[in-house]
UniProtKB/TrEMBL annotation, chains A, B:
ATP-binding in keyword set: yes
Top-level taxonomic group: Bacteria
EC numbers for this chain: 2.5.1.17
Record pathway: Cofactor biosynthesis; adenosylcobalamin biosynthesis; adenosylcobalamin from cob(II)yrinate a,c-diamide: step 2/7
The Cob(I)alamin adenosyltransferase N-terminal domain, residue ranges: 1-25
UniProt lineage: Bacteria, Pseudomonadati, Pseudomonadota, Betaproteobacteria, Nitrosomonadales
Family: Belongs to the Cob(I)alamin adenosyltransferase family.
Any GO CC annotation of this UniProt entry: cytoplasm
Protein name in the entry: Corrinoid adenosyltransferase
UniProt xrefs under Pfam families: Co_AT_N, CobA_CobO_BtuR
Organism of origin: Methylophilus rhizosphaerae
GO biological process, one term: cobalamin biosynthetic process
Compartmental location: Cytoplasm
Length: 201, 201
């Protein structure tokens, strides 16, 4: 009896939910390339971008990836995706900026990297461009943010761009179609657990 | 002159940052399988889990994926990863719960799926287990959360588990090593933009 009640309440609730969602899907009818920002201090920003790379490849799309700043300690995704014929992968940073400690050299590296990215942002054959850890180049003044925003605004209309990194600016958030902020609620590293291959600790 | 000042402040700051990070790496020396939760209303939770799948495959690891509840509208990641010899992929839901509107049937489906997951959680050859959208099975009472937590606690010691879905409970957060909460700051869908292949709108 109680189960039947719960079942019929569940059904009524799901009927209402379906109506709301169907209406939203109906209203969402604009197709265009999206700018998506993954920011915040939580873990999983780059992983999320690489999950979208996998998804796009599953749809037969071409993908360009540029990794800025961070000489990532875990390069499993690079090893995995680089071999795929539809992926172009560029590592543009030279290790952690707190390893190089040389702002002039880092700026030159970032500007060389930017030339490559600017090319991808003009190529309609590349349907998804991932700019991993791009925000740090603005924070440390390696790249001019307005220059980057201008290039993104002028990209091919159906090209998607995903930008990751902490501390996305107001200007970047305003330009974006979708912004997800990852909050660091609990972090294994603080409990003394070592970074391990594969997992985004 | 001003540039030189900025450069030397940058260098000093990066030297301090390197010291802090090196010390943290030094202290983090425990190796074990991690339980990672990706929750919150923002976009990118499942994408983040699938990025970790790519990373793990890049390290030659074996991966098991179970997708609960959601008959995803975008199945690009399934198309992409299913063909990989080191991936076992199970779709355990039968479409959105607001499409089926039948709690009894959904509960039976979830319990059948759970048998498969329980097997993966006892197999040390599977180094990463992704339980995508698992939290909804607790919310709607399809699976008993304590039963799932017990199985996770008894898994092989080096196996990583990633759980995604909105509304992760306190019990799940307490059991986890790392919890990232994705906040929905801005969402293209609300601006009338249609869901599009590849991108996690």
């Amino acid at each position: 009896m109680e189960t039947n009640d719960r079942d019929s309440r569940h059904k009524a609730r799901m009927v209402r939910k379906k109506a709301v969602i169907d209406e939203k899907i109906e209203q969402a009818n604009q197709e265009k390339g999206l700018l998506l920002i993954l920011t915040g201090n939580g873990k999983g920003k780059s992983s999320s971008a690489f999950g979208m790379v996998a998804r796009s490849l599953g749809h037969g799309m071409r993908v360009g990836v540029a990794q800025f700043i961070k000489g990532r300690s875990d390069t499993g995704e690079e090893a995995f995706f680089r071999q795929h014929p539809a992926v172009t992968w560029h590592v543009l940073g030279e290790g952690f900026t707190w390893n190089t400690q040389d702002r002039q050299r880092d700026t030159e590296t970032a500007m060389r990297g930017w030339q490559i990215v600017a090319g991808m942002l003009q190529d309609p054959a590349i349907q998804l461009v991932v700019l991993d850890e791009l925000t740090y180049t603005f924070k440390y003044g390696y790249l001019d943010e307005q220059m980057v925003l201008d290039a993104i605004a002028k990209r091919p209309p159906m090209q998607h761009v995903v930008i990751t990194g902490r501390g996305a600016s107001e200007a970047l958030r305003n330009a974006a179609d979708t912004v997800s902020e990852l909050m660091d609620v609990k972090h294994a590293w603080r409990a003394g657990i070592k970074a391990q291959a594969g997992i985004d600790l």
